[in-house]
Design brief:
The chain has about 260 residues and is of the alpha+beta class. The chain has helices at about 50-55, 100-110, 110-120, 140-155, 155-175, 180-200, 215, 220-230, 240-245; strands at about 1-5, 15-20, 45, 70-75, 80-85, 90-95. The longest helix has 21 residues, at about 155-175. It is globular.
C-alpha cells in the first residue's frame, strides 16, 4: 500500500481489511465467487486496529505488525513522494460492503452531519445535534421537513434504495457491536427521514407514526416490556415495515 505525503499529523494504518459481502440465502451456492476464476471481488480498507478495537464490542484480536516495512517512493506522475507500507491483510465478510466505508468514517471522525449528508442526500433545514450540555435538543419539524424535500426530489424507488443502504449500515454496526452513539444517531435519524420521505412520495404522509420525544430515547428493551405490560395478553405491538408503506415498489428504477 502507498500513502501520499501530507502535512496533517497522522499515523500509518496497522492492517488492511479485505472486505466482501458475507454469504446470505439469496446469494446462491457460490456466494459471490466467479465460477470462471474461482475468485471473488474484495475491497481493501486500511485501518488502525486500535480505532476498531475501541469502538467495536465484537472486534477480534488481529496479528501484530510491529515492524512493518516502509520506504519512500514516488506515488504519481507529478513526482509526489509517499511511503510504501507492507500490511497484514485480514479477511472480513460483512453484511453490506457498500456502506462499510461510512461506518469506518464515523468511527474516525465522529461527524454525524457528514454521515447524514451521505445517507440522506438532500438539503436539510437547520438542526441541533445532541451534546453533553444539551442531550435532547429541540428540532421541531426537522424530520418531516427533510422528508418532504426528499419526496420533492426523488422517486419512491430511489428512496427505497437509500433505505436499503441504511439497513446495510445498521447490519454492519450490529455485526461489529459498534458502541459510538453518534453513529447510531446518524442511522436513527436517516432512517426516520427516509421513511418519512417515502411516505410523502407515495401520498401517504401519515403512514409513519411520529414517536413521542420522551419515549424516543428510552432503551428499546425497557420500552418493549412496558408496552407489553400495558396491553392485553393477545395484543400485538405494531411495527413499520417497508412493504406496509410501499408494497408496490422496489429499489430498482422502472423500465424505460
Amino acid at each position: 500500500m502507498m500513502a501520499a505525503a501530507s502535512r496533517l499529523p497522522s499515523s500509518f494504518p496497522t492492517h488492511a481489511l479485505a472486505v466482501w459481502d458475507a454469504p446470505n440465502p439469496t446469494a446462491g451456492p457460490l456466494h459471490g465467487i466467479d465460477p470462471a476464476t474461482g475468485r471473488r471481488k474484495v475491497r481493501l480498507v486500511p485501518v488502525h486496529n486500535l480505532v476498531l478495537a475501541a469502538h467495536c464490542a465484537n472486534w477480534f484480536p488481529m496479528p501484530s505488525n510491529p515492524a512493518a516495512e516502509r520506504k519512500r517512493v514516488v506515488v504519481n506522475s507529478g513526482g509526489a513522494e509517499g511511503t510504501e507500507l507492507t500490511l497484514p491483510v485480514i479477511p472480513l465478510p460483512v453484511a453490506h460492503v457498500d456502506s462499510f466505508h461510512q461506518l469506518i468514517y464515523g468511527m474516525y471522525t465522529h461527524k454525524v452531519s457528514r454521515l447524514l449528508d451521505e445517507l440522506v442526500p438532500v438539503q436539510k433545514p437547520a438542526y441541533t445535534l445532541p451534546t453533553a450540555a444539551n442531550p435532547h435538543p429541540k428540532n421541531p419539524h426537522y424530520i418531516i421537513e427533510t422528508g418532504k424535500r426528499l419526496a420533492a426530489r426523488y422517486q419512491p424507488w430511489a428512496i427505497v434504495r437509500m433505505l436499503k443502504h441504511v439497513i446495510g449500515l445498521w447490519q454492519n454496526a450490529c455485526q461489529l457491536g459498534v458502541s459510538d452513539k453518534r453513529i447510531w444517531l446518524a442511522i436513527d435519524w436517516s432512517w426516520d427521514m427516509l421513511l418519512t420521505g417515502l411516505a410523502h412520495a407515495t401520498g401517504q404522509p401519515n403512514a409513519v407514526p411520529r414517536p413521542q420525544p420522551r419515549k424516543f430515547r428510552r432503551p428499546v428493551a425497557a420500552s418493549m416490556v412496558q408496552q407489553q405490560q400495558a396491553q392485553p395478553v393477545d395484543a400485538k405491538i405494531e411495527k413499520v415495515h417497508l412493504e406496509h408503506v410501499l408494497p408496490q415498489y422496489s429499489s430498482h428504477a422502472p423500465a424505460q
